[in-house]
Amino acid sequence: MIKAIWGNHFLAQLPQIDWSKLRDNPAKDDPGWYFVHDRRNQMQERGRWLLNQVLQTPELAQQFIHQDGGIWKHGRVNDYLDKMSLFMEKLLVLIHISAGQPARCNELLSLRYCNTEKGGHRCIFVENGLVVIVTYYDKGYNITGTEKIIHRYLPQEVGELLLLYIWLVLPMQQQLQLLVFNDTEIPSAFLWSMDRHKKWTAERMRKLMKRESDRLIGVPLNISSYRQIAIAISDRYMKKMNKFEKEDGEKGEDKDKNEDEQYDDAVAEQSAHTPETAGRIYARLMEEGSGHMRHIRHRYRQASIEWHEVLHFSSSLAGSEVHHSSLKRGWDEEHERGSLEPRFRRW
Fold first, then answer.
1. How far, in whole angstroms, is CA 131 from its chain's centroid?
2. Is the whole model's pTM more than 0.70, yes or no?
3. Contact, 98 vs 311, CB < 8 A?
């Protein structure tokens, strides 16, 4: 979609993302804050990068601006915004099918990319080279009095699209709304909010799923049927992690049973079809969001990564051995062995 809008030459000039150095602070709750504002990433100065490309590139300036009076071409800007709406439709479907077990429509459509003063914490984070979306599922809230916090990790190919959109494209859309249409309304923190024609609803998402599945596989799937299919796929193919043995080569039944149950719980909870225990508040890192469970978050990551492998994303297939071997050694040991920074920050 970016290539179709801007062309090959512009695509080659996009700022590169160094996933190994990308940082986030989920515990920071300042209104309007998200990972772009983290000084360690040095991303904030790129907020006008896309707009500057339009203004400083003669070919693009000619497309968007009248040369005689410097007035924006409303028709060309409207065409661009229409294409971005189509991109967001495709991105919604892509996230729905690639992040692990599918979320409910209202969970995805209510994702916030930044913190809000009254609405609450954001839902999109960066963690160890992957973009993660965190949703709050309240089915059974009247009974338990707690919300379920579910993590879904995107493959890098999809995470890069989402990150580039939030980092570069979304500011451009907000700037065009102000410069071209004189829209002074405070920008929404919801990812799926800037649409000029119709609202983002569950019915619209259902139609998008049918349209894209019909186009790609020749069978129109609705939200409900895909949920059943995704659960069946996980039951059939996502069993590799339950087969790891201890270092001495002998399986410990109690240990394996506990790990199997935890893994199955993570997969099931991503599907939101089984209950979940209340969130823990102890043994959290300093930069850990309140209510997030560290051990189950790691299981969510494993469940999403294995789903990426089922869908044959190259980034996940290339690193599958690393992901699986880390399960034997433990994620924390693997993480701290390569860097002393986490230990130092905790100390």
1. 5
2. yes
3. yes
